[in-house]
Design brief:
174 residues, mainly alpha, 3-stranded mixed sheet, 9 helices, disordered C terminus
Length: 174
Amino acid sequence: TALTEEQVLEAWKVCPNPILCFDGDGAGIKAAIRSIDRVLPILRAGYSVSYIFLKEKKDPDELLHTLGPAVFEQYLQRAKPLVDILWHKCKMNKDASTPEQKALIEKEVYEEVGKIKDAQIRSYYAQEMKQRIYYTFGRGAQIKQQPTPTNNNSVQSNIISERMVGSKAKHTYN
């Protein structure tokens, strides 16, 4: 069953950040990706959705009854925010080996962000995506790959790393 805007709005009456459960197979991932198109236009301050993907090929009710609440709670604790799923959608199955291909991914990212009607939220999503683009494709990706003091015993490498790796370089966007 496809998720509708009305269902999201109803869920928000109960919880400002409902967790959407999808099968972890290809069909479930495609359904989650399609759900983004329903949610982005209606986002508002304080309201979003998160995602979990079930590996056991069971619906949430079956999973809860067969594997128990503790296992289901583990899934809930690993829920991914909408922004992560949007990022995944924009770069999944895309070659990013050339500047032109990276630019295409960036274009698609900002087209998706443009679907958000609320200007303030759209602005924050644009900021977040700009950081992810920088740390995945730009100079931030180069900084992220530098040796750090914890994984390299060379004093010279440690000094260089401490100068090049700022607090933002600790972000990992895959």
